[in-house]
Amino acid sequence: MRPSQLGKRAVFTLGIATAVGMFLVLVMGATVTSTGSATGCGRDWPLCQGRFIPQFAVATAIEFSHRAVTGVESLLVVAFAAGLLWLHRGQRPARALAALMVGFLALQAGMGAWAVVQPQDPLVLALHFGISLIALASTALAAAYTGRAEEIRNASPVPGGLRVATWGFLVYVYLLVYSGASIRHLGIGPACPGWPLCSGTGTATPEALAINLAHRSAAGLAVVLAAALLAAYVRLGGHRRDLVTAGALLVTALLAQGAAGAYLVLSRWDLFGELLHAAMTGVVFTTAAYLCMRVALQAPAGAASVVGERGLGRPERFEAPAEGR
Which helix (H) or strand (E) holds 227? Predict the structure, then answer.
């Protein structure tokens, strides 16, 4: 039986709620880290201070609320994954997105529990944030696919080199995020109290200064690379306005993230700056992942001509593939 329009709208709405919930989990996780509340429930998991509902101190309330929201979000992810597979059954993109959502949710929860019951190296804790980003991006991409599956699968092909460049940029952003998370978990951000360059470093070690400056330089380069990708998308012509729009959003988000980073440093790492920077990181990574999905899923070979090697020319007309591909 084919899904009804009501069923499609219900799954899409569930997808939006799940993506928003995962974004909230990401920001609440950053709150736990920034406020030092990771041990607010002691070394107990999934209980808190040995209880299902603990006596609340501030740190306990922050950590317990993060766990509670994550629990609700887990139910939403499982329900949305089931709805996605029902709505787009037989489609490989839907199966892949559902597996990513559930798999990285489980990995995210597992690493969070591991960090609670046994103290971890700061570099391992930084990896937890990166896993949370993939969980967020996979959920947002699944919601986008649910709402526009036909358009996404029938998009005009792009040159192979541009696909590689788009995926390469996503890997670059992930490494950039990991370096920033490492700075936070290592506690070496204050070693570079000025912006854009370090000033008044005092007793900061050369290694701490080098890591901070390398991260800031890599962030600046990310803006340049994103602008280059946007220019390449523009050269494809009007038939891929989706890439142009998402590319423009990516550049804007990177600039906003840079501004948030500057505010974070100049405000001496206050909580609002930490959360704003983490939130913008989620937006940047998710947008880059969305671009990867849009260049990866396209009309079958032969259905449309690949735009020339430099992305110039007009695509030939093609017929939409049969449902269920």
Answer: helix 206-235
Together in a domain, 171 and 293: yes
Q: Which of 177, 80, 95, 102 lies closest to 133, judged by CA?
A: 177
pLDDT in tens, 108-142: 888 877 766 666 667 777 888 889 999 999 999 99
Residue 300 has pLDDT above 90, yes or no: no
Residues with active-site annotation: 63
Please provide the distance, in angstroms rounded to a whole number, between the alpha carbons at the two ends of the chain. Answer: 17
Residues 58 and 135 both lie in one domain? yes
Residues 163 and 303 occupy one common structural domain: yes
Spatial distance between the Cα atoms of 167 and 28, rounded to a whole number of angstroms: 28
Model confidence, pTM? 0.84
In terms of Cα–Cα distance, which of 162, 91, 121, 198 is closest to 309? 162
Nearest Cα to 214, choosing from 251, 188, 247?
A: 188
pLDDT band at 259 (very low <50, low <70, confident <90, very high): very high
Residue 15's domain comprises 1-152
Q: How far apart are CA 238 and CA 215, in angstroms?
A: 35
